[in-house]
Write a structure and sequence with these properties.
Helix content is 29%, strand content 23%. The chain contains seven helices and ten strands. With 201 residues, it is of the alpha/beta class.
Length: 201
């Protein structure tokens, strides 16, 4: 299958099933809102599938190297970055007027297939109706597609091992990290954050 900027698709992450679209399409983002029944002003995260591409898209502090970022994203984590350090154009409908953008990076084959088709990073948000728990099983993801998102492409299969837990969200604010949401690996993440030379507020 060949995706384009208007495509909306369902895929597995390390934690829960996700739904996404190219960051270049406002119309595709609006399709996601309709499918999930979520408000227009809710920011979405951006998924990268190559750590070098992510690294080259932002002006990271010295302590946040490529290897540091790769190890960070192995810990079921999301990173919030100030828009002012972005080196790429991030449309306003991605961040919903926030001064930060949240990013993830998973170097999974199925996700790389998506980004190669789009030649761009893509929105990522959990697969579920607003107010309901995120979907964690392959069978429930297929059921969601059938009932709510039949026009969406589907990536992945029953072999994907998802933790079923929400990611820990960490924001970079100046020379400090702030933990916004606590996930299951937060203690490992705290130790890793300190190796950057920055502090945790």
């Amino acid at each position: 299958m060949k995706l384009n900027d208007e495509s909306v698709f369902i895929y597995p992450t390390d934690t829960v099933w996700g739904i996404g679209a190219s960051i270049r399409s406002k119309a595709a983002r609006e399709k996601i809102n309709v499918i999930k029944r979520s408000p227009d002003d809710k920011p979405l995260s951006i998924m990268f599938t190559d750590i070098n591409t992510l690294y080259n898209s932002f002006n990271f502090p010295d302590g946040m190297s490529v290897s540091w970022l790769r190890n960070f994203f192995k810990l079921e984590s999301t990173l919030g970055l100030p828009l002012r350090i972005s080196k790429i154009s991030i449309p306003s409908w991605v961040t919903a007027k926030s001064e930060f953008v949240s990013v993830r990076c998973l170097e999974f084959p199925a996700l790389k297939e998506i980004s190669q088709d789009l030649a761009a990073p893509f929105f990522t948000t959990s697969l579920n109706l607003a107010g309901e728990p995120p979907i964690t099983s392959y069978e429930d993801a297929l059921k969601f597609q059938k009932e709510h998102a039949h026009s969406c492409e589907f990536f992945g299969d029953s072999t994907h091992d998802l933790s079923g837990r929400s990611s820990t969200i960490v924001f970079l604010k100046g020379d400090k990290f702030e933990i916004i949401r606590v996930g299951s690996k937060v203690e490992e993440i705290k130790k890793h954050l300190l190796t950057s030379g920055l502090i945790i507020s």
